[in-house]
Amino acid sequence: MFKFSIAVKPNVQDGDKLYSLIKNYFLAKGNQYSEENPDIVFCVGGDGTLLNAIKNNFGKKASYMMINAGTLGFFREYDLDQMDQFFTEFDYDKLQYETHNFLEISDIYGNKAYACNEFIWASPISTLDLNIFVNHKYFMTVKGSGICIATAFGSTGYNHSLGGSLLVGNSGKVLSLIAPIRNKAIHPLINSLVLLDEDELTIEMRNHVPCYISADMRQLPNLKGVKFNIKSSKETFSLAHSTVFDNYTRIRRSFVD
Could you please report the per-residue DSSP string of 40-107? Predict the structure, then answer.
């Protein structure tokens, strides 16, 4: 038996009915509902619902399974019209797990934040002047609208929209530039850079202009200063799968089919 909770996207059609359907089904099987310490969280909504559930349960040893009620549902295990299949196939003792590391961002004052998908430092109105270090060695200077560092998990999100590489698996990071300036005086990398999982990045601002710092599209007001270190965290989260997981199938059905 296992403990579970349910996260439903606000305003999703028949959300209350879906919540009750899933909850009553698993309670009838002798399982326990627990929002405080779930073994698995069933996410009914889109990728944003999944991300919110992961962040809201940070530090817990829960896994996550998504039933898509959103637009794309990149990380979906089932769609709403597959609820019968979901109940038929689900066997907690036979689940397979896909584990990912959070991205850890820290400032020089010891403040930290975590991202599932990506860390963004950007300005929509001013040019940022940034020094980038890899493993504490100077790598390049960037002038432009900003920078995005994505996890393998998040490489198919905003990073993909920037033209960044898609990472298959659960390791590595992608560094992509946002509208970089490139001329004969300034010539940073234009293509995305794929870094090893163990590589650490340091970003240092050289000018003082209005900008925002965010993780998974949420601003990070707790981070201070003009210098940040980014690395793969020891903290992890896992997606649960009822059937054999295939990363290439996930990419194909979302971007190719």
Answer: EEEEEE-HHHHHHHHHHTTTS--EEEEEE-SSS-TT-SEEGGGHHHHHHH--GGG-EEEEEEEEEEEE
